[in-house]
């Protein structure tokens, strides 16, 4: 199977018609049709049903799709790394991070790196803020030097350790009725509109368990996968949430009220590394700076919890 036919297959799976696939690949519609004929002839099976001007993938095409995407992601990773090595050599940082640490913490750590570098050459930095699944996939494929991700995903195929583990903090707008308490009880959260992380999040499950033990349940107003979204909604007065303190720190200076929860519901951040890979000196140095930044953030959040 030639590369051109595989490209045609990908375009047809994405577009659903020869006309749209031709536009994606900047070729003519007859060229797409001929390429599809060759592809199905080589495969020895029908890959698309022609229905009302559309191409509907057969079950065989759907099964092939996952394998094709896996191969193309690997090829794109190789091309990306080759371009980086050509342009910048090994003085670079390829970072992937989930939003809880990628939106505020990583920029603070990079600011620390800039201060440390002084007049020394600045490395070529790529910071990709992605879902934890995408972080894990990029690290497993060696696209990223390392990544930070949540702990709800399988960790096979990567080296890993715990980067941070903190009890969650309750966040709310200024003037909220719960702001007068130094510690918030779980059952108090059941009495107010709640901004919840998605049900699969381990912290959300931990909070629901604590509430169930007290015969209470949350009044969920909004669900979201991102702690940053919870903080943004809380500071705007939409409700109360439970998030990791590193994310809360990003918003505390904007007036977000932060309080302790009376029971520990932990948030864990996993450091993910390509299996068996030795980190470059640049990556090791930055990881050390990240740990120093984390210790400083922990001290800063304590000031908001007094």
From TrEMBL:
SUPFAM superfamilies: Periplasmic binding protein-like II, Winged helix' DNA-binding domain. InterPro entries: LysR_HTH_N (IPR000847), LysR_subst-bd (IPR005119), WH-like_DNA-bd_sf (IPR036388), WH_DNA-bd_sf (IPR036390). Residues 1-58 form the HTH lysR-type domain. The keyword Iron-sulfur does not apply. GO terms for biological process: positive regulation of gene expression. Keywords: DNA-binding, Transcription, Transcription regulation. One of its GO terms (molecular function) is DNA-binding transcription factor activity. PANTHER family: TRANSCRIPTIONAL ACTIVATOR PROTEIN LYSR. Belongs to the LysR transcriptional regulatory family. This is Transcriptional regulator, LysR family. It comes from Variovorax paradoxus (strain S110).
């Amino acid at each position: 199977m030639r590369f051109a036919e595989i490209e045609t297959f990908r375009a047809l799976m994405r577009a659903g018609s020869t006309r749209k696939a031709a536009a994606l690949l900047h070729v003519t519609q007859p060229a797409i049709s001929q390429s599809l004929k060759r592809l199905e002839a080589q495969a020895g099976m029908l890959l698309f049903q022609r229905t009302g001007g559309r191409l509907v993938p057969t079950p065989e095409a759907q099964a092939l799709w996952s394998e094709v995407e896996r191969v193309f992601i690997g090829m794109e990773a190789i091309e990306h790394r080759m371009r980086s090595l050509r342009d910048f050599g090994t003085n670079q940082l390829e970072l992937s991070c989930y939003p809880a640490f990628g939106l505020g913490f990583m920029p603070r750590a990079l600011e620390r790196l800039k201060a440390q570098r002084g007049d020394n050459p600045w490395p070529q930095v790529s910071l990709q803020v992605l879902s934890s699944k995408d972080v894990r996939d990029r690290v497993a494929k060696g696209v990223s030097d390392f990544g930070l991700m949540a702990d709800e995903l399988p960790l096979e195929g990567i080296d890993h350790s715990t980067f941070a583990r903190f009890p969650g903090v309750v966040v709310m707008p200024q003037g909220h009725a719960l702001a007068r308490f130094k510690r918030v009880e779980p059952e108090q959260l059941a009495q107010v509109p709640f901004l919840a992380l998605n049900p699969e999040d381990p912290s959300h499950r931990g909070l629901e368990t604590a509430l169930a033990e007290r015969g209470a349940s949350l009044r969920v107003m909004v669900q979201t996968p991102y702690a940053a979204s919870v903080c943004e909604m809380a500071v705007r007065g939409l409700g109360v949430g439970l998030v990791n303190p590193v994310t809360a720190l990003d918003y505390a200076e904007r007036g977000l009220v932060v309080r302790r929860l009376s029971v520990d519901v932990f948030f864990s951040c996993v450091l993910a590394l390509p299996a068996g890979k030795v980190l470059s000196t640049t990556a090791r140095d930055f990881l050390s700076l990240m740990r120093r930044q984390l210790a400083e953030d922990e001290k800063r959040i304590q000031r908001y919890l007094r």
